[in-house]
Design goal:
The protein is α+β, with helices and mostly antiparallel strands and 683 residues long. The protein folds into five domains: 100 residues, Rossmann fold, CATH 3.40.50; 67 residues, Dna Ligase, domain 1 (2-Layer Sandwich), CATH 3.30.1490; 250 residues, ATP-grasp fold, B domain (D-amino Acid Aminotransferase, Chain A, domain 1, 2-Layer Sandwich), CATH 3.30.470; 134 residues, Glycoprotein, Type 4 Pilin (2-Layer Sandwich), CATH 3.30.700; 74 residues, OB fold (Dihydrolipoamide Acetyltransferase, E2P) (Beta Barrel), CATH 2.40.50.100. It is 27% helix and 32% strand. It contains 19 helices and 39 strands. The protein has an eight-stranded antiparallel β-sheet with strand order 14-13-10-11-12-15-22-20, with helices on both faces. A hairpin with an 8-residue loop joins strand 7 and strand 8. Helix 12 packs antiparallel against helix 13 and helix 13 crosses helix 15. The protein starts with 5 loop residues before the first strand and ends in a 9-residue tail after the last strand. It binds adenosine-5'-diphosphate. The site of adenosine-5'-diphosphate (ADP) has 19 residues, from strand 13 and strand 14.
Length: 683
């Protein structure tokens, strides 16, 4: 067997860790690269060697071809694995590897070039007779003249598009001209290529894709299908294998089409052929991704093939050892992408500091991630925290397992989509496979409402009592009993009442509660009075590893909570169905920094424009002295691959601009300040 000696991994996060794992299993040494901002990531420690190649900027780090190639040479690597994203589909990078005699672990540049441009890919797929969504390609004039050949709705797409960006749906003639121009402009600014084309927009399709593997000897196989219809903003969040929609006959036809595409392009690595499937089970080629795909674990768990290992072996010059007839799908796997984002706020990315990170643990659960403890989720990278994957005998059991795993996944301090994903698992349409790529558009409001209703139905006494008991955490001894509490309790005996505050992040409001506590006896019975109501509480246990706190409420209810502290006296309590943010007002919150105090005196909220999250300023549309209207877009901040328009809160004149394009900002500073509003004079 031909093998590399040492591989450089030109990526970060979970996929870097994943690749190192396969390299280790083959006895190949690994070299990690990292940005200074990633110093705490698992991939840095896990690799045999790791080198910091820059601070934060992508062009300075994970996208810097020269630095990466030089490092590979210097460290004696004979191959580079690009992972996904970054340089994975960049022919320039492949050529740079070739020039130095370093093997790029991925496909040949011809197939990469062809499939990297959606117009070229369409023309090619058409030429080999594989079904394709009806469309028109050509210059702006041709698109304008010929779009009527395609019935509405029509989708305008960027030739170089990716990541669900650069697409626009058009439903009438009057919108067409503007939409073509806007999409082309957007494509130029995002992908450096303004070429666009149009396609029939298929209503409520499914996204079903096939995994392929090819080698340098003309062998191409497929490893079956993945259902990827659950998407938000055209990006997948739940994937499963096998697709519950595909029957054996359809699987055979789609698999043959996928292999045919692989063979016709001399495909020699791991790749994915994406299809749209309409309600009559017609399938249409959508695009091919010439790299390892985020959702590859569901294929691995159902075929028992390590795709990254195969990728490495093929790149080293070995013939594929697996034959199509030897492959079969066993059981059912589901992957949920855990994102730092707020589904209740249009899935806005939510970077920031975690205060608790506890992973579920069970058989047949796989978690691919770049972190292993509570950490800061950075705004300049993708908001994916991890991929949670489960495997079971069948879809029904896999859904139950995933629901339980999501319940056991504890992340505090930032918003995540965990409860959103969990709700999907028990959503009737999902359970009965009545889904399409519109699932999230159609059901998010209902899902969010259910989540909020559940939170509202949790008695607030539970988080308050839990947070109170948590304050004694240092006094719980190893055996879990609360003997030592008595040395801590003195202070409380004298305190008459204490105020707790519950925060509602979405409404930016808080509610205050007055609590008095009495300790009834030395067996640990507390009597709480919250506002006018009394509660008997017995502490049961606190696990310092998982921050799990258990107690009995009114002698009968066994309550389990997970608690973490954000700042002194302020933190999060997770009950069965919700996470509460809470503070004890007798403890000074140490989170208010001098900067915030200064900021708060700069001007009222109405005068200053702040970013809702940390990110990079990519555009400033205003100048000092300029008169702006309420709603004007003043600044665009990019965070986690999403653009956020910051708008003028009122009509006014710009007094100061505190940032410039390219600056990293966070939510604490005023980016733009409007002049103080003068009293209207009556004269
Ligand atoms: P990207 O390369 O940006 O990921 P894709 O072409 O793979 O873009 O499409 C992403 C998603 O957009 C698909 O999974 C599907 O939900 C939707 N989509 C793309 N083309 C169409 C179409 N013609 N009709 C309906 N939905 C589409």
């Amino acid at each position: 067997m031909k093998l590399f000696k040492k591989i450089l991994i030109a990526n970060r996060g979970e996929i870097a860790v994943r690749i190192i794992k396969s390299a280790k299993s083959l006895g190949i040494r690994s070299v990690a690269i990292y940005a200074n901002a990633d110093i705490d990531s698992i991939h840095v420690n896990y690799a045999d060697e790791a080198y910091c190649i820059g601070d934060v900027e992508l062009n300075d780090t994970y996208l810097n071809i020269d630095k990466i190639i030089n490092l590979a040479e210097r460290t004696g690597c004979d191959a580079i694995h690009p992972g996904y994203g970054f340089l994975a589909e960049n022919p320039k990078f492949v050529n740079a590897c070739d020039q130095k005699g370093i093997v790029f672990i991925g496909p040949n540049t011809e197939s990469m070039d062809l499939m990297g441009n959606k117009i070229k890919a369409r023309n090619f797929i058409k030429s080999i007779g594989i079904p394709l969504v009806e469309g028109v390609t050509g210059d702006a004039e041709k698109l304008m003249n010929e779009y009527k050949k395609i019935p509405f709705p029509i989708l305008i797409k960027a030739a170089a598009g990716g990541g669900g960006k650069g697409m626009r749906i058009v439903r009438s003639d009057s919108e067409m001209k503007d939409a073509l121009e806007a999409t082309s402009r957007e494509a130029k600014s995002y992908f450096g290529d303004g070429d666009i084309f149009i396609e029939k927009y298929i209503e409520n399709p499914r996204h079903i894709e096939f995994q392929v593997l090819g080698d340098n000897y003309g062998n191409v196989i497929h490893l079956f299908d993945r259902e990827c219809s659950i998407q938000r903003r055209y990006q997948k969040i739940i994937e499963e294998a096998p697709s519950p929609t595909v029957d054996p006959e359809l699987r055979k036809r789609m698999g043959e089409a996928a292999v045919r595409i692989g063979k016709e392009t001399n495909y020699n690595s791991a790749g994915t052929i994406e299809f749209l499937v309409d309600s009559d089970k017609n399938f249409f080629f959508l695009e091919m991704n010439t790299r390892i795909q985020v959702e590859h674990p569901v294929t691995e768990m159902t075929t028992n093939i390590d795709l990254v290992r195969e990728q490495i072996l093929v790149a080293a010059g070995n013939e594929l050892s697996i034959k199509q007839e030897d492959l079969k799908q066993t059981g059912h796997a589901i992957e949920c992408r855990i994102y730092a984002e707020d589904p209740a706020n249009n899935f806005l990315p939510s970077p920031g500091k975690m205060s608790l990170y506890v992973e579920p643990q069970d058989e047949d659960i796989r978690i691919d991630t770049g972190i292993n403890k509570d950490t800061v989720i950075k705004s300049f990278y993708d908001p994916m925290i991890s991929k949670l994957v489960v495997h079971s005998e069948n879809r029904e059991k896999a859904i139950v397992k995933m629901e339980k795993a999501l319940t056991d996944y504890k992340i505090h301090g930032i918003s995540t989509n965990i409860s959103y994903l969990k709700k999907i698992m028990s959503f009737e349409e999902y359970e009965t496979n009545n889904i399409s790529t519109h699932f999230c558009d159609d059901h998010t409001d209902d899902i969010i409402k259910e989540i909020k209703d559940e939170k509202n139905s949790t008695p607030i006494s539970i988080p308050i009592i839990a947070f109170f008991l948590y304050s004694f955490k240092d006094s719980y001894n190893r055996n879990g009993d609360n003997k030592d509490i008595w040395s801590y309790i003195g202070y409380w005996r004298n305190a008459r009442t204490i105020k707790f505050e519950l925060f509602d992040k979405h409404n930016e409001t808080s509610e205050e509660f007055e609590i008095s506590v009495e300790v009834q006896n030395e067996s640990g019975l507390f009597e709480f009075q919250i506002n006018d109501k009394k509660y008997d509480v017995i502490y049961k246990s606190f696990d310092k590893k998982t921050n799990k706190l258990e107690f009995y409420l009114d002698n009968q209810h066994h309550i389990t909570t997970y608690i973490s502290e954000k700042n002194m006296g302020r933190g999060f309590v997770e009950t069965e169905n919700a996470i509460f943010e809470i503070s004890r007002n007798d403890i000074l919150d140490d989170s208010i920094t001098l900067k915030e105090i200064e900021e708060s005196s700069v001007g009222s909220k109405e005068n200053s424009i702040k970013s809702p999250m940390p990110g990079t300023v990519i555009k400033i549309n205003a100048e000092v002295g300029q008169q702006v209207e309420k709603g004007d877009i003043l600044i665009v901040v990019e965070a986690m691959k999403m653009e956020n328009n910051l708008i003028a809160p009122r009509n006014g004149v710009i007094e100061t601009i505190n940032v410039k394009t390219g600056d990293q900002v966070d939510g604490s500073i005023s980016l733009i300040i409007l002049e103080e509003q003068k009293e209207e004079s009556n004269e």
